[in-house]
Amino acid sequence: MNASPVVQIGLFLIVLFALAWPLGRYLRAVLDGRLSARFAALAAIERGLGKLLGASPDEDMPWWRYATAIVLFNVLGLLAVYGLQRLQLSLPLNPAGMANVEAGSAFNTAISFVTNTNWQGYVGEATMSYLTQMLALTVQNFLSAATGIAVVVALIRGFTRRNAAGIGNAWFDLWRVNAYVLLPISIVLSLFLVGQGVIQNLSAYQEVQLIEPVSYSQPKLDAAGQAVLDAAGKPVMETVQAKTQTIAMGPVASQEAIKMLGTNGGGFFNANSAHPFENPTGASNFAQMLAIFLIPAALCFMFGWQVGDLRQGLAVLAAMSVIFVAMFGALVGFESQANPLLTQLGMDAGIGNLEGKETRFGIVASSLFATVTTAASCGAVNAMHDSLMPLAGLVPTWLMQLGEVVFGGVGSGLYGMLVFALLAVFLAGLMIGRTPEYLGKKIEAYEMKMVSIVILVGPILVLGGTAVAVLTPAALASLWNPGAHGLSEILYAFSSAANNNGSAFAGLSANTPFYNLMLGAAMWFGRFVPIVAVLAIAGNLARKPRLAASNGTMPTHGPLFVVLLIGSVIIVGALTYIPALALGPVVEHLQLFSR
Amino acid sequence: MKTLLRPALTLFVLLSAITGLFYPALITGLAQAIFPHQANGSLIQRDQQLVGSQLIGQSFSGPNYFWSRPSATGPMPNNAAASSGSNLGPSNPALAEAVQARIATVRAAHPEQAGPVPAELVTASASGLDPHISPAAAYYQIARVARARQLQPEQVKRLVDRHTAYPSWRIFGERTVNVLELNLALDKLAAGKQAA
Q: Which InterPro entries match (chain B) (predicted)?
């Protein structure tokens, strides 16, 4: 009855491209200012905005000014998210009476949401007030997404402008992306999700009568609220009966829509998009996956049109799609195997690995979601990645380690992939002994230095961070699973943080001083070092003339270049990470299947 | 730097107000007007009392009810104020131990079933709140429930079929049986039988 993996991914890509094409045209009109010029109302709003800001859309910023504006804007976000968490008990819209968030966790979460990572060390429905979810977290879902798009647009201007000093105006790029793109699509998507069953209210948590009371055991507490210990020092357990169930509420749909659309991924609830109130049906699940890839795919079309040759954008999109489809094939294949340790106990092997999955999604929709969310730097999950089969869990880990360039984050995926394109033309140039060119711009030492920084910052943070963690007893105490899988948990955490994905092998207890600090640093530098380097490339390219293609120019729109681009991404990713992956998921797979 | 501070601050405050207050308020208003049932949690009432949500699973262990997916939430299973999966890795001995115990419980309650145990009945869901099982996992339990309720298995099977949902638009997702709704219908059927 359920459609095969081939049908699912085929349908997914067809609908995706059909929606991304018109959105790409629209994005182009928004970002080159034609939309605002065409509608008098928008023009008037922007004039008013200019007065309010004391800035003009005509001010063309040099790259360093653009970069300063972007970083400054994000630092303000950091302070606001931190402050709101620390003060939420004294602020309104807190019906569950959530306490102020502890400093280390608030610091980590502030960086996490500002950097478009949305790594979550906390349990949403037991930590955050409605006001914090809305005014801190939802806001950053918009602003961090707009930041990524602004940076890639600035980079594209670097290619298209000739002998120019500036790369655009950061304020108006941010405004236009938020107001004309992210907000309208989020409104439509939110309402669709509510129709499917996603909740949207400001009510207190609901208490309902259970049909059948539930008995469970919990540590016995004394009058002072301390756990009672037995002679051996272990907590004494007592059996209690629950007659009611408390159901968490909140303004979920409005956050859910932008969480996906902006490739943010931070769930309102702890279980993220596995929670029935975040993702209740197969249809809501499909819409959420589409929303993740929608803008990254649309930006590829926009890029092609902006540089005056759609085929340039299609080549990048083709490279992304090929890697994506191959990774999905691997993941769904590994997940369709049931766990041999469990089938030998008498569990049915027919469906596959269902631990940590929801019945309504099953193997195929869970595997597709896991591939989409880690190919893009979204990080929302509809199945628990920690419980994936070993080699299935390797796929999302490696997709993140590739630098989140397979569709990637909104904006950041395309600028990451364009950095790899520069690397690819550079490698090709070395082979034939010519100065490399891309889109008519000479790629020289300065650009290649910046490219190297962008490509190296990820591995340094991921492998360096993992190495420090495995040598630190406090970090190892956070492990939930023993053996090789424990290394996978740590490696996944740093891969996710440094590449701004935000999903987790969530067994790892990450809300500790060590991980709050280390992962916070990884997220911050993993986000803003590449952003500044990319804007530097943009500024330097904008200054150069645009050369006409000659006989010696390597074409960057054909299958040959697509293969070269895929090769660059895969080879860098493989050489850097295979040794670490071999010690984690690969060892675990061999242990599991050799018995 | 100083010339950037004013636009940065102004734009930040403005966009925060639009996306963090106006937008969620707008969606809340529209959702409450157009989809009030869904927006408020798809809650179910029985005899003037809230007894659950169509979307949130509850735990059942009695012989006269269909059982749900195991739940890894703490301290109680199906804790809808703290969703969570088990996060146990495939090679973790704790996973095999938990599944072994669940298989023993399921087998003891279903002596008439000789084959392997359906995976959903012994593996924890991702959210810990999964309201569904597959039709196969429901069929597995029919004989036991019919016996405990003193109903004809045919009768119970018809009830299961009536509560089996297709994937969205027949394409996306899997076929599911909503356990809470099925059990409520079962109670209703039994009550009707007693009255008659």
A: KdpC (IPR003820)
| Cα Rg of chain A, angstroms | 24
Residues B72 and B113 in one domain: yes
Q: How many CB pairs under 8 A join A and B?
A: 400
Domain that holds residue A537: 410-593
Q: pLDDT by residue (tens digit) across B132-163? A: 999 999 999 999 999 999 999 999 999 999 99
pLDDT value of residue B158: 97
Closest Cβ–Cβ partner in A343, A362, A588 for B91: A588
Please give the average pLDDT of every successive group of 10 residues along chain A, which has 595 residues.
Answer: 80 98 98 94 96 92 98 98 98 96 97 97 96 97 98 98 96 98 98 98 96 91 81 85 96 98 96 98 97 98 97 98 98 96 94 96 97 97 97 97 97 98 95 90 96 97 98 95 96 98 95 97 98 98 92 90 97 94 97 87
- A208 contacts B168? CB cut-off 8 A: no
Token readout for A218 is: 């919990």
Of A329, A564, A528, which Cα lies nearest the Cα of A423?
A: A564
> Does residue B25 sit in the same domain as residue B92?
no
A200/B27 CB distance under 8 A:
yes
Nearest CA in chain B to A352: B119
Q: How many domains does one find in chain A?
A: 2
Q: Supply the pLDDT for residue A230.
A: 83
**B24 contacts in chain A (CB < 8 Å):** 134, 138, 251, 254-255
The token duo for A471 is 């040598």
CB A262 within 8 A of CB A145: yes
Tell me whether residues A360 and B176 touch, CB distance under 8 A. Answer: yes
CA–CA separation, B110 and B129 (whole Å):
24
Domain closes at, from A225, A247, A269: A247
By C-alpha distance, the chain A residue nearest B185 is A211
Which of A317, A250, A261, A252 is CA-nearest to residue A288? Answer: A261
Cβ–Cβ < 8 Å for A561, A554: yes
Chain A CB contacts of B171 below 8 Å: 3, 7, 11, 282
- Rounded to whole angstroms, the Cα distance separating A365 from B168 reads 12
Judging contacts by C-beta atoms under 8 Å, the chain A residues touching residue B106 are none
Q: Please say which residue of A194, A217, A247 terminates a domain.
A: A247
Q: Which residues of A touch B18 (CB under 8 A)?
A: 178-179, 183
Tokens at A276, concatenated: 């029935």
Name every chain A residue with its beta carbon within 8 A of the beta carbon of B166.
1
Q: Which of B81, B117, B130 sits opposite A246 (nearest CB)?
A: B81
Over residues B184-189, mean pLDDT:
94
Distance CA A37, CA A180 (A): 13
Q: Which domain holds residue B22?
A: 1-40
Assign A243 to helix, strand or coil: strand
Whether B25 and B71 map to the same domain: the answer is: no
User: How much is the ipTM here?
Assistant: 0.96
Q: B193 to chain A, minimum CA–CA distance in Å?
A: 19
Residues B132 and B175 both lie in one domain: yes
Say how far apart CA B131 and CA A424 lie, in whole Å. 49
**Cβ–Cβ gap A258/B115 under 8 Å:** no
How close B180 comes to chain A (CA, Å)? Answer: 8
Taking contacts as CB-CB distances below 8 angstroms, the residues of chain A near B75 are 216, 218
